[in-house]
Every structure is written in structure tokens, then in C-alpha cells.
Amino acid sequence: MATYDNLPVYKQTYDLLLQLYQLSQNMERDYRYTIGENLKKELITLIANVYRANSREDKDKCFIIQSARENAEVIRLLLRLLQDLKQIGLKEFIAANEKLESVSKQLAAWKNSVFRNKPKNEKKGLEGQSPGGLFAFQESVG
Questions:
Q1: pLDDT at residue number 103
Q2: What is the C-alpha R_g of the chain?
Q3: Which of 69, 76, 67, 70 has its CA nearest to residue 16?
Q4: Upper half-sphere CA count for residue 89 (Cβ side, 13 Å)
Q5: For residue range 76-94, what is the model confidence (pLDDT) as tens digits?
Q6: How many CB atoms lie under 10 A from the CB of residue 51?
Q7: How many C-beta atoms surround the C-beta of residue 10 within 10 A?
Q8: Taking all residues of the chain, what is their mean pLDDT, rounded to a whole number?
Q9: How far apart are CA 63 and CA 90, in angstroms?
Q10: Is 124 exposed, middle or buried (0-12, 13-18, 19+ CB in 10 A)?
Q11: CA separation for the pair 69, 52 (Å, rounded)
Q12: Run of H or E residues at 24
């Protein structure tokens, strides 16, 4: 098992976090302390989930990686909102979105790799399950 800080997905997420800290300096105060802070918290949670998934046994990894993928989707939404509100420019939005897309693809591949290596009796019922969070709430309401 590689140390978490050597994982490409960790490095890419950390680079995105640094980029967003720099971008937040140019946001209007109201947006910086609302959407900007939520975005930073989601990114930190995503990085923490990468660490957790890397340090756990295979049976827990799928759920944690799925949670990280959900974090990535919330980040994507918040980035788009900032761009629509003209708080970040199109070039910055594209650069951040490309990094986020890379992170999302790496997480999907990691989850598929872990899922393929699971014994059949552990796979049963895991496909499509959400570990909780925003998407679990939406599923229970809808």
C-alpha cells in the first residue's frame, strides 16, 4: 500500500485545494465566506476520504471512495456556481474543473479496482449504495 501523500489522486486534490485558496482571495467578501468556505471544506473532506480509503481494508474502501466521489460532485456544483456568479473567471473554472475531472476519474477507477478484487459474497448489495451524506438524504426524500 502506497502512502497517501504519494497517491496521484491525493496530489491532484491537494493541488486543486491550493488553487482554490488562491482564487478565493479575488472573490467578493460575501462569496468568499460562504461558497468559498464550503468549497474548501468539501475539498478537505475529499482529501481526508482519500487518506481513509488508502488506510482501510478492502471491505471499507468502496464506501469511503464513494463518499469521496460525492464530495467531488458537490465541489463541481460549487465551482460552477462561483463561475456563474462571476467570482472566478472562465480560465480558472476550466483549469479547476479539469483537475477535478481527473480526480473523479481516478476515484472511479480506484473504486472499480477495489470492487473487482472483492470476493463475490462481499459484493452482493454494494453496487449503487451510498455511504451517506447529501446524496443519501436525497434518496430518502425522493
A1: 96
A2: 16
A3: 76
A4: 6
A5: 999 999 999 999 999 999 9
A6: 17
A7: 20
A8: 85
A9: 34
A10: exposed
A11: 13
A12: helix 8-24
Q: How far is the C-alpha of 79 from the C-alpha of 75, rounded, in Å?
A: 6
| Distance, first Cα to last Cα, the chain | 39
Q: What is the pTM of this model?
A: 0.79
- AA letter at 41: K
Q: Which CATH number fits domain 4-141: 1.10.760.10, 3.90.190.20, 3.40.50.300, 1.20.1440.60?
A: 1.20.1440.60
What 41-45 contacts at long range (C-beta under 8 Å, 24+ apart), as own/partner pairs, is: 42/71, 42/74, 42/75, 42/78, 43/13, 43/16, 43/17, 43/71, 43/75, 44/17, 45/71
